């Protein structure tokens, strides 16, 4: 067995023969035999010297099985799934060596899974390119597999570079099995950061990939097809995402013509994150902030649109825009976010006990508050759960059709999570969160003037049909409450057997919307309306780490 382990370590050492493997290599004449694997105690248990070097490496991993149940009364639009399951593997490789400049570290993590059913087969992961779906009649949207590079970063002399967890995040669902609360948890993004430490205090400045934090600018022409009311949004085919700008209105406040902007955001600059973190025996405190670029392209070649599908000449559209003072389509703005959190160790209750408290606020940077973490990300309108009676519109910004300018949305979240050990083998987590999203006042009213031209992607006219306008779900302010509890048994080291129950309540902040589970109209108005959708989830897990 010792020779087998030596052979495996030697094989993996050859894979590591890059910066981490060569930084502290001894001359070949000082190399030990391949079958002489030495324990490395400098970095904790489980590390071994790579034969022939002074670099230490640790291999670890995880195997997990999960199954769950989500009640869902909706049977329309191919919905009605209740069960979910996932089998997952994780492999970690941690290589470390000491240099004249301090520690040099390379860390790799890959994850792969086969997952099925509601919430497990997620459109979010497909939209970000982390998973691929089955395409059968009964399996599309229900069966999904992935194999991803979850971590791949280098740390050296205070620098972190590669695919790593965002420096903005703090709690990141540490105590939860399913990780459903509203709160930022970007487990991996491409970044380059520098951290300076003085005792338990650290200051980090990080330049992070913007693509993993963008919620699309709302594009009325795309939204109607992205997620019909009550249906989950798996993905949106790439287009220029045309969004309308009004050319003129009539006396009834109806748009009589629109031109279209390209609402697809470009990567014009990275996001910039600053984080101040403090660790002590009592716990931790964290303060972080972020700045993100938000942008849209210029006017596109799609013909300007008039009533009844007529087109408007380009020269005429340009003249009408100029008369309204709209001369340039391309717009750029800057979103921002702040977050504060504290973790308190509570050994006076029981060894291992602790509590997290965290709050975040953002303008035009929704993914930094984590408001969409449960419902999903990277689409501008989503249902919070398959078959929900209400729908969320979740864009970082909207191009105001009257001004042609970007109107930024605002969001905030608060979360608390308490971990308690009933005994060394039994523990529970109790967690709850609240999040809210608001659009700039007047934006919906301006969009409503487009209803005759772009259909249900804009609300009914607020001035001519105020009742129907008040019931439209488009660009409504929404909020979400999530609460749950778990019970986990660890009969032996590195084994967990647990169950978790979660409540999710998603609602419009005021008024009512059509109940998508009963799509019945009477005199053009919804016969059944709702102000919130309540859902629950029960999930169990068996997990072994090594």
How does this structure look, described?
Mean pLDDT is 87; it is low at 1-32. The radius of gyration is 26 Å and the shape is globular. The two termini are 17 Å apart. The chain has a 16-stranded antiparallel beta barrel with strand order 2-3-4-6-7-8-9-12-13-16-17-22-23-24-25-30. A two-stranded antiparallel ribbon has the order 10-11. Strands 14-15 form a two-stranded antiparallel sheet. Helices cover 10% and strands 44% of the residues. The protein is mostly beta strands and 546 residues long. The protein is built from eight helices and 30 strands.
In brief:
The protein is mainly beta.
Summarize the topology.
Elements: H1 2-15, H2 19-22, E1 48-49, E2 56-69, E3 83-99, E4 102-117, H3 123-127, E5 132-133, E6 143-156, E7 159-164, E8 189-198, E9 201-208, H4 220-226, E10 242-249, E11 255-262, E12 271-280, E13 283-296, E14 304-305, E15 311-312, H5 314-323, E16 331-345, E17 354-363, E18 381-382, E19 392-393, E20 397-399, E21 406-408, E22 410-421, E23 426-438, H6 443-448, H7 451-454, H8 466-471, E24 478-489, E25 495-508, E26 513-514, E27 521-522, E28 525-526, E29 529-530, E30 532-545
Antiparallel strand pairs: 1-2, 2-3, 2-30, 3-4, 4-6, 5-6, 6-7, 7-8, 8-9, 9-12, 10-11, 12-13, 13-16, 14-15, 16-17, 17-22, 18-19, 20-21, 22-23, 23-24, 24-25, 25-30, 26-29, 27-28
Q: C-alpha Rg, in Å?
A: 26 Å
Side-by-side strand order of the widest sheet: 2-3-4-6-7-8-9-12-13-16-17-22-23-24-25-30
**Percent of residues in beta strands?**
35-45%
The number of E-state strands comes to: 30
Percent helix: 10-25%
- Terminus-to-terminus distance: 17 Å
